[in-house]
Design goal:
The chain is mostly beta strands. The chain has one domain: Immunoglobulin-like (Sandwich). It is 9% helix and 50% strand. It contains 1 helix and 8 strands. Strands 3, 4, 6, 7 and 8 form a 5-stranded antiparallel beta sheet that branches. A 3-stranded antiparallel beta sheet has the order 1-2-5, with no helix packed on it. It is elongated and about 40 Å long. 21% of the residues are buried. About 10% of the residues have low confidence.
Length: 117
């Protein structure tokens, strides 16, 4: 019985869950210092208890510039792309970072560095 309980705990552990993977980031300048980000994410969403639930744009110091919340699982749509308009980025900025998040684990440790057009 102890082995069964241990196996179930390990299987349910968020530490063993796969992180969302950012497969692509398309950036378009829409106005001076304003950008649209389209981010493609792959994640093995299983339902409301485990799904990629957001991504954000950070400056190179880790300050948040914009965030896209994903309000539902994408179990049957993998990978999926969602966009965020109106991201204000200071003049002279050449690169930003994009970071993904999932429920229940939270923000990925890693980011994807993106060159601005």
């Amino acid at each position: 019985m102890k082995k069964l309980v241990l196996a179930l705990l390990i299987a349910a552990s968020p530490a063993l869950a796969e992180d969302p993977v950012i497969e692509d980031v398309a950036v378009t300048r829409t106005a001076p210092e304003t950008y649209r980000f389209s981010v493609t994410i792959r994640h093995p969403d299983t339902g409301w208890d485990h799904y990629a639930d957001g991504w954000r744009v950070l400056d190179m110091n880790g300050n948040e510039l914009g965030m896209r919340v994903l309000f539902h699982p994408h179990v049957d749509e993998q990978p999926f792309t969602r966009s965020l308009d109106g991201v204000k980025i200071p003049a002279g900025t050449g690169q930003v970072q994009v970071q993904a998040r999932d429920l229940p684990a939270g923000w990925n440790e890693g980011t994807v560095i993106v060159d601005l057009p």
